[in-house]
Amino acid sequence: MMREANEEEIKNLNAAAEQQRAELQLQNDELDIANKDLDATNKAQASTILAQEETITAKEDVENQLDMVREHNELMDGQKDELNKELENASDYILRLEDKFFEAKKTSLDLLKQLKEAELEGDAMAEEVEMLKAYIIDLKSRIAVYIPVKGDTIDKKLAEYINNYPDRQKLKIMFMRESEGVY
């Protein structure tokens, strides 16, 4: 009986062990499923972490580029200020040149006016001088010692010489014109 009881107990123990093994297998299967779920979650989180790390790296790159752009902008602002100063200086220089040019043109116009006035006065004076010369010649011809034949250039020159001779009183004319160029 004891043997039967032992066998019965072994059967019970085997059944209990089998039930425990089945339960443990079930738990093991559940744990495997949970483990697979955790592995999938882990992989998803790992890929999320990689994506976030890439985003962080991209953000750092953008920040670095932003810093470089800011530095470049500061440099450009400095150069822009320098160019604006140069432009102001050039504008001032051009304005001074324009003022000088305007003054030179104004002076030139004044000088041209004066020159025109002088020419007009000179023309008037030249006309007056010519009138006086003609008047003097007329007077000389009235008191002329020798009167030339009109149209004879040689006779005219001879008359000028004789009539303009400095000491006319000592001058004795001892010739007579016969024809052009013959005396």
Features:
0% strand; mainly alpha; 2 domains; 2 helices; 83% helix; 183 residues
Write structural notes for this entry.
This protein is mainly α and about 180 residues long. It has 2 domains: about 1-145; about 145-183, no CATH class. The chain has 2 helices and no strands. The model has no long low-confidence stretch (mean pLDDT about 85).
Question: What is the topological layout?
Answer:
Elements (H helix, E strand, L loop, with lengths): L1 H141 L10 H11 L20
Task: Give a short synopsis of this structure.
The protein has about 180 residues and is mostly helical. Helices cover about 85% and strands about 0% of the residues.
**Structure annotation, total helices:** 2
Q: How many domains, in number, for the residues? A: 2
Q: Which whole number gives the mean pLDDT? A: 86
Described by the principal axes of the CA atoms, the overall outline is rod-shaped
Element pattern in H and E: HH
